[in-house]
Design a protein that fits this description.
This protein is α/β, with parallel strands linked by helices. The chain contains 13 helices and 14 strands. The strands form 5 sheets. Strands 7-6-8-9 form a 4-stranded parallel beta sheet, with helices on both faces. A 3-stranded parallel beta sheet has the order 2-1-3, sandwiched between helices.
């Protein structure tokens, strides 16, 4: 009788232990997403979300990481910095996510970073401003190369090679635009060029006639614009309709299907720089990024039509987080507060040591003093030809 009772007890202990281990092993990794799905920067955020969804599905289809699936927690920042801060706090304190992704506009990223620093959780930004990662902050990382290296100098060179001697620079008065203006000032000083004029406009502008009048008065023969899709399109239209026929180039925030829809015939011939995925079919087979870029490009266009650069930003974030998780202690349980803290710390440490990651925006090599990890040749020049982005040759 005693033997039978003992045997039953051992079986119950085994079942209890098995259920406990299975439960712990199946506990998912909650991954946070906060970007602008509505409001002024919705074109960025919607594409962010689409890229995020594709990447999360890829990770889960491959069995997840450490036997755990990714469960996304998604919030809309509404193109509002205060809302972004609220969402960030909820993701950390209520949803218990292992990492923060998204943050497609510079303002929402910069406003949310102090929250991530205070709570010791990685915040991955998909915005352009170098102020996100310069100076280096322990918990903030970025996946977009800065304008100083990836766009502004290349676009100035493009205008000069096309014969422009009096370049006008126009920018939106946001963090993104202000960083662009700083990059422009630095670049023209390096190149010993004097601009024809530098103009700015406030977010939400609908009348660009003052800027156009000033550009014409300055006798500019080339224009470089740093703005988002709607305002850049209105500025291009206003400029062309007022008789400006010389080259116009634009910073990389305009790249997306919405640009063609809004600009129509005025899109033709516009030059910018952007990630290789935008022109993935044009890449030579020898390009080390082509396989990764073409795979994601094909999946995205099959689901959503015209490719948007902003989707690739989140693909990079999600897959680098997955790669970091593969290198941490797999026994750590995200449902336990002490383990969750360790997971967040180990993910941060592993991402900082990431080398040679082939992504959509380039080949990433992070370090303790570089939380962007991209070099000056990450983006390529592209031009609108017959309503499509093509490699500029």
């Amino acid at each position: 009788m005693r033997r039978a009772v003992f045997a039953v007890c051992m079986v119950l202990v085994f079942i209890s232990q098995f259920n406990s281990d299975t439960s712990a092993q199946s506990s998912p990794y909650y991954i946070g997403f906060a970007s602008d799905l509505t409001g002024q920067f919705a074109t960025l955020g919607i594409a962010n979300k689409r890229g995020f969804d594709i990447a999360v599905n890829e990770v889960n289809a491959a069995g997840g990481v450490n036997g755990r699936k990714f469960v996304p927690i998604v919030y809309d920042n509404e193109s509002n910095t205060a809302k972004a801060v609220i969402n960030t706090k909820k993701l950390i304190d209520v949803d218990k996510v292992i990492a923060l992704t998204g943050y497609g506009s510079s303002g929402t990223a910069l406003s949310s970073m102090p929250v991530s620093e205070d709570n010791e959780i990685i915040l991955f930004s998909a915005a352009a401003s170098e102020k996100i990662w310069i100076p280096t902050r322990k918990w903030a990382f970025n996946v977009v190369p800065r304008q100083r290296e990836a766009s502004i100098p290349l676009l100035i060179d493009n205008l000069v090679k096309r014969g422009c001697k009096r370049i006008a620079y126009v920018y939106i008065d946001t963090v993104y635009g202000q960083t662009g203006e700083e990059a422009f000032a630095w670049a023209i000083k390096q190149k010993n060029i004097k601009p024809a004029i530098v103009e700015k406009y406030p977010p939400g502008s609908t009348d660009y006639s003052p800027q156009v009048t000033h550009i014409k008065a300055a006798r500019a023969d080339g224009i470089l614009i740093t703005g988002y899709v709607p305002d850049t399109v209105m500025l291009i239209k206003s400029t062309r309709e007022n008789g400006f026929t010389n080259p116009i180039v634009s910073d990389y925030a305009i790249v997306g299907p919405e640009f063609f829809e809004l600009a129509g015939k005025y899109a033709e011939g516009i030059v910018t720089t952007i990630s290789k995925t935008v022109v993935a079919p044009d890449l030579p087979d020898t390009d080390p990024q082509k396989k990764v870029c073409l795979s994601f490009y094909t999946k995205y266009t099959k689901l959503h039509g015209e490719y948007s650069h902003y989707a690739g930003n989140l693909w990079d974030q999600v897959h680098m987080i997955a790669g970091a998780l593969r290198r941490i202690d797999p026994k750590l349980d995200p449902t336990k507060d002490n383990d969750l803290k360790k997971i967040r710390t180990q993910v941060r440490d592993k991402i900082e040591k990431t080398k040679g990651f082939i992504g959509q925006n380039g080949i990433f090599n992070f370090s303790a003093d570089n939380h962007n990890g991209l070099g000056p040749n990450s983006f390529v020049p592209v031009v609108v030809t017959e309503g499509k982005w093509r490699l500029y040759r």
